[in-house]
């Protein structure tokens, strides 16, 4: 993004568009200057750039600003210039060279430094005096692409609204919308973002957020943007349009975003993952339709084909909270809602399970809901198993569950005639009789264990066959029938 005063636009018949760059010549020259001035003072670089501004000062300054952001600066002095300035300026104005020398001598004694060190350090922390320690190279074409993107983002600072359509990349785009706190509506296949110029407060902050969405939109395979632009000090509203079909050089990349919206969510995620619940948890896993809106739930939980979602309702304005409640009520799937108890709402405002929290989402309450869903699913699966035939003497519980399209837990609860479940195996009772004959009435535990391992059975099979294990201290030594 660029400062507004560096935005260059063309206006025609009520439409507006930035003056995009294609030629890389200026970019090549500026990049070479930055590489040449690596290791020199910033003010020397600025003097050189000033000579380039005869071409088009807004373009030169815009490109230079992007290049400047790729520089590392350092002070030429290890001494704190600010402290030295404060010491000198506290002694008032000087009207002669003699008075100046006297104050500098005082500074030399106070800081135990030479006159040269004081003179050098006096303004060393200011940017003009800093050294360009490192310039990170960027190809000219990539610089042009980023400049064009920055122009578009700067124009969107003054958008009343923005409508866009995309093909693919929904997850990234809507995740970004949510992360940036943008307000949106769905109109057919278009997404409408309410712009900063239509708000009374937070105009600058919201405008930046809206501009930050742009890279995610143009990262889609196909995209189109329409916006209403209200420039400052102009009464007219302009139309702006841009699409993937336009012959404009723009970058395509995926920006990294903060994974969590709040510490509350991050803490809940980490604590849930540390528990051995058997449920997989995913952050912002999918998009859920809710009337003309879309919800990206904060968390998704998955186990044996069961899916459930959790939406965290933290701090919102009354208007946004009202819309949030409406969206949750109109969602096409069941969602558990975790509500900040400081919000002015009650359980009856929501459909489905509601959990109120203060500073921390209660894990026990969430797990209780998941266990209930799991139990309901298991009971339904058990009722659906009408006929169960097993011909194998030993078969994996997981393998048979997949064959029947049920969970292992549901299958393990069913009483199978002439079979028993030992660990993760379904074992025929007749096979256990033959196995007992193979082990004998008495055998060392180590030998018995080798026989069990041969069939993939655990030591629990010994209990089913009526064996007792004899121990020597903490070590099993013998099995006896």
In terms of quaternary structure, the protein is: single chain
- CATH domain fold name of the largest domain: Trna Endonuclease, Chain: A, domain 1
Number of strands: 22
Please report the first level of CATH classification, the CATH class of the largest domain.
Answer: Alpha Beta
Mean pLDDT across all amino acids: 85
Q: What's the total helix number? A: 17
* Fraction of residues in β-strands: 15-25%
State the end-to-end CA separation. 80 Å
Name the strands of the widest sheet in spatial order: 6-7-5-8-9
Radius of gyration: 35 Å
Structure overview:
The chain is built from 17 helices and 22 strands. The chain is an alpha+beta fold and 481 residues long. The chain folds into four domains: 76-124; 157-256, no CATH class; 263-377, Trna Endonuclease, Chain: A, domain 1 (3-Layer(aba) Sandwich), CATH 3.40.1350; 394-480, no CATH class. Strands 6-7-5-8-9 form a five-stranded antiparallel beta sheet, with helices on one face. The chain has a five-stranded mixed beta sheet with strand order 10-13-14-15-16, with helices on both faces. Helix 1 crosses helix 7 (140-156). Mean pLDDT is 85; it is low at 197-202.
């Amino acid at each position: 993004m660029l400062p507004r005063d560096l935005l260059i636009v063309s206006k025609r018949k009520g439409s507006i568009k930035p003056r995009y760059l294609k030629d890389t010549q200026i970019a090549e020259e500026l990049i070479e200057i930055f590489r040449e001035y690596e290791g020199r003072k910033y003010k020397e670089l600025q003097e050189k750039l000033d000579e380039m501004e005869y071409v088009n000062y807004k373009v030169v300054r815009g490109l230079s600003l992007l290049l400047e952001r790729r520089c590392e600066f350092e002070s030429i002095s290890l001494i704190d210039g600010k402290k030295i300035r404060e010491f000198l300026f506290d002694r008032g104005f000087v009207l002669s060279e003699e008075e100046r020398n006297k104050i500098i001598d005082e500074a030399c004694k106070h800081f135990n430094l030479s006159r040269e060190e004081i003179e050098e350090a006096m303004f060393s922390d200011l940017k003009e005096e800093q050294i360009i320690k490192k310039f990170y190279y960027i190809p000219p074409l990539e610089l042009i692409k980023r400049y064009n993107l920055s122009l578009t983002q700067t124009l969107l600072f003054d958008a009343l609204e923005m409508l866009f359509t995309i093909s693919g990349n929904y997850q990234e785009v809507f995740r970004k919308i949510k992360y940036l706190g943008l307000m949106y509506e769905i109109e057919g296949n278009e997404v409408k973002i309410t712009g900063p110029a239509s708000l009374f407060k937070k105009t600058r902050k919201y405008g930046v957020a809206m501009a930050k969405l742009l890279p995610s939109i143009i990262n889609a395979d196909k995209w189109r943007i329409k916006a209403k632009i209200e420039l400052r000090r102009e009464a007219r509203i302009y139309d702006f349009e841009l699409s993937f079909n336009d012959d404009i050089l723009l970058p395509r990349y995926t920006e990294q975003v903060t994974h969590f919206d709040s510490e509350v969510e991050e803490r809940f995620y980490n604590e849930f993952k540390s528990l051995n619940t058997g449920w997989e948890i995913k952050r912002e896993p999918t998009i859920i339709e809710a009337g003309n809106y879309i919800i990206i739930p904060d968390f998704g939980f998955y186990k044996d084909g069961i899916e459930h979602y959790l939406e965290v309702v933290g701090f919102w304005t009354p208007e946004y909270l009202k819309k949030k409640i409406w969206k949750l009520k109109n969602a096409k799937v069941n969602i558990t809602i975790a509500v900040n108890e400081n919000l002015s709402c009650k359980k009856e405002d929501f459909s489905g399970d509601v959990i109120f929290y203060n500073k921390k989402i209660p894990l026990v309450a969430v797990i209780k809901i998941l266990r209930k869903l799991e139990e309901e699913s298991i009971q339904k699966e058990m009722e659906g198993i009408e006929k169960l035939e097993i011909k194998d003497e030993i078969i994996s519980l997981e393998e048979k569950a997949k064959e029947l399209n049920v969970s292992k837990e549901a299958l393990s609860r069913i009483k199978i005639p002439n079979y028993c479940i030992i660990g993760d195996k379904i074992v025929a009772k007749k096979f256990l009789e033959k196995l007992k004959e193979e082990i004998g009435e008495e055998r060392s535990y180590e030998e018995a264990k080798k026989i069990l391992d041969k069939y993939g059975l655990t030591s629990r099979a010994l209990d089913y066959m009526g064996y007792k294990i004899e121990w020597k201290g903490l070590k099993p030594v013998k099995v006896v029938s």
